[in-house]
Amino acid sequence: MQLVFTPEQEELREAVRRFFAAKSSSAAVRALMEDATGYDAAVWKQMATQLGVQGIAIPERFGGSGFSFVELAVVLEEAGRALLAAPLFSSAVLAAYAILDSGDEAAAGELLPGIADGTRIGTLACTEDSGQWDLGALTLPATADGAGWRLSGVKSFVVDGHAADLLVVAARTPNGLSLFAVDGSAPGLGRTALPTLDQTRKLARIVFDDVPARLVGADGGAAAALTRTLDKAVLALAAEQVGGAQRVLEMAVDYAKVRHQFGRPIGSFQAIKHKAAEMLLRVESAKAAAYYGAWAVADDSEEVPAMASLAKAYCSEAYFFAAAENIQIHGGVGFTWEHDAHLYFKRAKSSQMFLGDGTFHRERLLQRIGV
């Protein structure tokens, strides 16, 4: 397993960072927070045509660039650093991997090229009103008719569900948990935007009223495939969290150098040094967990399930700790709406709960390592 980024991967990082610095500034992010769609269609198109990030990890035979999960993690780390407001995670991670892991070549050939070139926005509709990420808690039923399948029920907390052209839906048939592709314009499909703590990541509640759907993969065979998808998703989220954690660490250190109190920079005070040192320790440890997990996926290692839960639990707490300490180091100005510190704090908090909280993943880790 290669545990060092290659020069090409570092060049990718620099290119993506420059793009996000220009297109995902604080002003742009704040404008999109107030926008109902939550993303800039022109920037989304540029991401596809200039960088190709939507399809970076999608195989070439399905219209993507065919790079590994490590390159995708690099992109997501930079997206987290810039608080990118765009459906990148929902489309390039959740929807794309759900289709790939299903093993349905026909569905992949039809659905993935649009995701790869950015003309189709996808998402995964998994959780229901309970918000549980345990697959055993999913109850939305799918029924067969002469023309195919129909869905009736509710999915909730669906990332970018308000804007998705394609919904990959986890539902139950008499044979068990299955995956279905639903067109965003299908009759009987209702969407309601949900109020969120983190306004940079939109969530929606989706109501299915006898909605036509296409089976993806084997009837009743989605549990194992969806588990693999969610393991990759939590590692992708860990990479995003690392990017945000690194950025708030830099914000705190930069401020500690220029803010003076009692005639000296506050960074010279031991209490501030201790805070910054603890932030650095946790951020670097989070990087180690996230990077190792990304390489494990790229290497198709049997360690992926354990690393996924370990990285999600640790990176979630590291990011939240760093975001909270950033506010403390900034003092009064850090609590204001005008300062960006609260944007990262809210993303950190929402990311703690997304795809399962620390308690959920610690319990899962223990199960996976046989404790």
UniProtKB/TrEMBL annotation:
<keyword id="KW-0285">Flavoprotein</keyword>
<dbReference type="InterPro" id="IPR037069">
    <property type="entry name" value="AcylCoA_DH/ox_N_sf"/>
</dbReference>
<protein>
    <submittedName>
        <fullName>Acyl-CoA dehydrogenase</fullName>
    </submittedName>
</protein>
<keyword id="KW-0560">Oxidoreductase</keyword>
<dbReference type="Pfam" id="PF02770">
    <property type="entry name" value="Acyl-CoA_dh_M"/>
</dbReference>
<dbReference type="InterPro" id="IPR036250">
    <property type="entry name" value="AcylCo_DH-like_C"/>
</dbReference>
<dbReference type="InterPro" id="IPR006091">
    <property type="entry name" value="Acyl-CoA_Oxase/DH_mid-dom"/>
</dbReference>
<dbReference type="GO" id="GO:0003995">
    <property type="term" value="F:acyl-CoA dehydrogenase activity"/>
</dbReference>
<dbReference type="GO" id="GO:0050660">
    <property type="term" value="F:flavin adenine dinucleotide binding"/>
</dbReference>
<feature type="domain" description="Acyl-CoA dehydrogenase/oxidase N-terminal">
    <location>
        <begin position="6"/>
        <end position="118"/>
    </location>
</feature>
<comment type="similarity">
    <text>Belongs to the acyl-CoA dehydrogenase family.</text>
</comment>
<dbReference type="InterPro" id="IPR013786">
    <property type="entry name" value="AcylCoA_DH/ox_N"/>
</dbReference>
<dbReference type="InterPro" id="IPR046373">
    <property type="entry name" value="Acyl-CoA_Oxase/DH_mid-dom_sf"/>
</dbReference>
<dbReference type="InterPro" id="IPR009100">
    <property type="entry name" value="AcylCoA_DH/oxidase_NM_dom_sf"/>
</dbReference>
<feature type="domain" description="Acyl-CoA oxidase/dehydrogenase middle">
    <location>
        <begin position="124"/>
        <end position="211"/>
    </location>
</feature>
<dbReference type="Pfam" id="PF00441">
    <property type="entry name" value="Acyl-CoA_dh_1"/>
</dbReference>
<dbReference type="InterPro" id="IPR009075">
    <property type="entry name" value="AcylCo_DH/oxidase_C"/>
</dbReference>
<feature type="domain" description="Acyl-CoA dehydrogenase/oxidase C-terminal">
    <location>
        <begin position="221"/>
        <end position="369"/>
    </location>
</feature>
<dbReference type="Pfam" id="PF02771">
    <property type="entry name" value="Acyl-CoA_dh_N"/>
</dbReference>
<keyword id="KW-0274">FAD</keyword>
